[in-house]
Amino acid sequence: MKKKWLMLLLVVTMTTLLWGCGKSSNSAEGKTSVLDGGAGDTATELSYWTFVELHGQHFKKMLEKWNAANPDRQIKLNVTVMPYDDMHNKLSIAVQTGVGAPDIADIEIGKFPDFLKGTPQLEPLNDVVEPYKDTIVQSQIDMYSKEGKVYGLSTHVGASVAFYNTEILKEAGVDYKSIVTWDDFKKAGMQVYEKTGKYMGTADTSAGWEASMMLAQQESDFTDDAGKPIVNSDAMVKGLKVLKDLQDNNVIATIAGGQPDTEEAYGEFNEGKYATAFMPLWMMSRYTNYMPDLSGKIALAPIPVMEKGMPRSYGGGGTGTVVTKTAKDVQLAKDFIA
Description:
Elements: E1 24-27, E2 30-35, E3 44-50, H1 53-69, E4 75-81, H2 84-97, E5 104-108, H3 112-115, H4 126-129, H5 138-142, E6 145-146, E7 149-150, E8 153-154, E9 158-165, H6 166-172, H7 182-196, E10 201-202, H8 209-217, H9 234-248, E11 252-253, H10 263-270, E12 276-280, H11 283-290, E13 298-301, E14 315-316, E15 319-323, H12 330-337
Parallel strand pairs: 3-4, 3-5, 10-11
Antiparallel strand pairs: 1-2, 2-4, 5-15, 6-7, 8-15, 9-12, 9-13, 9-14
């Protein structure tokens, strides 16, 4: 039986919104918004590419703070949001050819190794990382580094939790606070399906959130200490058997988009078709921005485990923000993202 374990890439389908600041334009290459952050006429214009619209909103707030604190080094930021694959493919070509690359860009963790092959066409960030090194988790630096040089700043990782739709659970007579193990989750899910016809959770097919979750609580991983894949490990088999059993009993089912963090999935959650998402804490921004009908209905709790005492969370996701070799003002861009 063919098994696709290494689905580590987060596939993000972007929606584009007008941020209500500066100029905005749509094109086949994405949506660009010009953020001035209160900058004057002498500000330096820098460009920033991302595949996550909410990252652009974050930089809007950071830009205002930067410009207020640095009147002599003010920035105007041209933010372009593109679909996941389009952005990474275009960025790869741009940095390899030295033509058309942005000053600043986001690179998702699953794509980052591609940009470190050979001689990275990204600026080392060691000098701007150093002042914060004692307060940063070392692994968050290492994953975007090569041969002692740091090429990306981690901006997109979070502890994972269960997001429970309390309205659905109440209708089914389920108390999410009583769910500790996967057996508890299975029992609750079967009750939800019987009472409401809805699924307790999702069976992911386009991302590795659930596989990562199962491995983490067994203190295992997709690779060994030497980086060699161990996708057929006992821990992986055990975890997938748990998920398969949940699916066979109508506790979980494949959601539109293949995983919770897609535009299609937002719609299904918003309509109340699924009661649970197991995702990193940054998923809260998706609920508040893209699933308004669930306002006041979502409760957060630890993820179920195979056995009591196992770890009930893990760090999920990852995005490294980089400065390209062709940046207009390298030091200004580095200082800004730091």
